[in-house]
Write a structure and sequence with these properties.
- This protein is of the alpha/beta class.
- The protein has 3 domains: 5-95, K homology (KH) domain (GMP Synthetase, Chain A, domain 3); 135-330, inorganic pyrophosphatase (n-terminal core) (Alpha-Beta Complex); 335-454, Diaminopimelate Epimerase, Chain A, domain 1.
- Helix content is 42%, strand content 17%.
- It is built from 18 helices and 15 strands.
- The protein has helices at residues 2-23, 61-70, 72-83, 105-114, 124-128, 137-146, 160-175, 203-207, 231-235, 265-276, 282-295, 306-317, 322-330, 335-347, 363-368, 379-384, 415-421, 439-457, and strands spanning 36-43, 49-56, 90-95, 149-152, 179-183, 200-201, 214-219, 239-244, 255-258, 349-351, 356-361, 391-397, 403-409, 425-426, 430-435.
- The strands form 3 sheets. Strands 6-5-4-7-8-9 form a 6-stranded parallel sheet. The chain has a 6-stranded mixed sheet with strand order 10-11-12-13-15-14.
- Helix 7 (160-175) packs antiparallel against helix 11 (282-295), helix 10 (265-276) runs antiparallel to helix 11 (282-295) and helix 11 (282-295) runs antiparallel to helix 12.
- The longest helix has 22 residues, at 2-23.
- It starts with a helix and ends in a 6-residue tail after the last helix.
- It binds guanosine-5'-monophosphate and manganese (II) ion.
- Manganese (II) ion (MN) is lined by residues 161, 220, 245, 264-265, 295.
Length: 463
């Protein structure tokens, strides 16, 4: 597993570098048609070569491969420089045939909006049709049965769904007498703090455990790079399991269940715990409910299925205090947050004939009002809610200087495809990426991409 981790990291780094080169440096005309997404990079065991898998919408794939091959010398030099490698692996370029990315998004949307019955477990049919090599819910139950120790890793920029899923699995396994912890390396946002239920430990505490006996679980992301500082810990476990519902990702766990048609990871967790007949007491139900509540924007987003409501109803029957959950999550507006919002609105820009809105918040502004990162929650939704706006971007400066973007769309624009172009990901209506560039550069790039996207790359106005 450790060795695998090295190969995996090498692949992830190469993916990131080529994705960035595609945005800026690679001028070959074939590499500037439509949106090319590097879906994953597989490094050979001996490090001699790496296979770069790409996908995109409406690409002349042969021309893209030629373009990459002609730019290979440059790409390898840049990889060598960026990673400080003495020997840079040779590169092979291939179309991603696994049907998980770009060009199949349309097909996926039609499948997803088509059928809507049954539980999340029943939905694996989509996956069986070729989306991802998913394991079934009952195989996951067998996997959980076969372990006594578990570590759960919520993704960075922690939200209700990733924390709720982690906490629910953790508490349920503990009820069975198994040992489980949620490993975190960031402050839990105030609005979801109440579902922590003493499940979390720090990296330092986790390092003291006998990691080789543990199953590592990644909830609400299929990209190990999204657990950042905890990556090494994650891969020190015996095996790994990813439970996710994002349309983009880089599934590298030993076991993966990724169901993009399900509105929240917590619904998949509900199905797993139900299938296993594992305990689901009030705290577990509350953690799951909060994940569903927040990921569906209080049951408003189009991802909300009839089954989402059925699961929520069942969780209420298990004792969730819905009023308390609502008050905790949505009734905690602070003056700091309001002042930050004032700054956002003052600088916001509406462009692309009123179809797009962009806003940003710098560290300086957060410090000025003594505000936290979590105080920017909901700002991209605010920009999206403007009449006529189809797509919104909210960018904020992280403590380490990187820029984190949150993108939202209303009816037709595919923000997941756009985020993937910048090395990020998400859902069709909510996605994001993290950039090493300055705020100005990031905003200028993304504005151009949105304008181009509105012309057709990311879905066009059906009107
Ligand atoms: P948010 O904008 O609320 O942070 O995230 C919206 C959606 O996009 C979430 O599902 C989140 O997981 C995904 N997302 C946000 N930022 C990133 C990122 O940097 N990388 C990836 N892969 N997904 C992201
Ligand atoms: Mn989620």
């Amino acid at each position: 597993m450790r060795k695998n981790y090295r190969d995996q990291r090498l692949g992830e780094e190469i993916k990131k570098i080529i994705s960035q080169l595609l945005q800026r440096e690679l001028k070959h005309p074939a590499l500037n048609q439509g949106i090319i997404t590097i879906s994953h990079v597989k490094s050979a065991q001996d490090g001699s070569f790496a296979t770069v898998y790409f996908t995109g919408i409406g690409l002349d794939e042969g021309a893209v491969i030629d373009g990459f091959n002609q730019s290979k010398g440059f790409i390898r030099t840049e990889i060598g420089k960026a990673m400080g490698l003495r020997f840079t692996p040779d590169l092979r370029f291939k179309v991603d045939e696994t049907e998980q990315y770009g060009q199949h998004i349309d097909e996926l949307i039609s499948r997803v909006s088509g059928g809507d019955s049954g539980s999340a477990a029943g939905m694996t049919a989509v996956s069986e049709a070729g989306m991802t090599a998913n394991v079934s819910v009952s195989e996951i139950v067998d996997l959980l049965e076969s372990y006594e120790r578990f570590l759960l890793f919520p993704h960075v920029s922690m939200d209700g769904d990733t924390l709720g899923a982690a906490v629910a699995i953790c508490l349920s396994l503990r009820e069975l007498g198994k040992r489980a912890y949620v490993v975190i390396d960031e402050e839990i946002p105030d609005i979801i703090e109440f579902i922590e239920y003493k499940t979390t430990i720090s990296i330092k505490e986790a390092e003291a455990l006998e990691l080789e006996n543990y199953l590592s679980i990644l909830p609400d992301s299929s990209d190990v790079s999204r657990i950042e500082t905890r990556g090494e810990l994650f891969s020190s476990g015996k095996e790994s399991l990813c439970i996710d519902h994002h349309i983009t990702g880089n599934p590298t766990c030993d076991y993966n269940i990724i169901l993009p048609e399900v509105a929240s990871t917590c619904e998949i967790v509900y199905d797993i715990l139900t299938e296993a007949d594992y305990p689901m007491h009030e705290e577990i139900a509350t953690a799951l409910y909060v994940g569903i509540l927040t990921d569906t924007g209080r049951f408003q987003y189009e991802s909300t299925r009839p089954q989402t409501h059925r699961i929520a109803a069942s969780l209420m029957e298990k004792g969730v205090d819905v009023n308390r959950a609502f008050n905790e999550v949505y009734q905690k507006l602070t003056p700091s947050k309001l002042f930050v919002e004032k700054e956002l609105l003052e600088d916001m820009e509406i462009f692309a004939d009123g179809k797009a809105a962009v806003g940003f918040i710098t560290r300086k502004t957060l410090d000025l009002y003594d505000a936290k990162d979590a105080d920017t929650e909901g700002m991209s939704e605010k920009l999206r809610s403007i009449v006529g706006v189809e797509v919104s971007v909210f960018a904020r400066e992280l403590a380490d200087g990187r820029i984190k973007t949150s993108m939202r769309s209303k009816n037709y624009f595919d923000v997941a495809a756009l985020a993937a172009k910048y090395g990020g990901g998400g859902h069709i209506r909510a996605a994001g990426f993290t950039s090493e560039k300055t705020m100005e550069e990031t905003l200028s790039d993304i504005k151009k991409s949105i304008e181009a996207g509105l012309m057709g790359d990311c879905g066009s106005d059906p009107q």
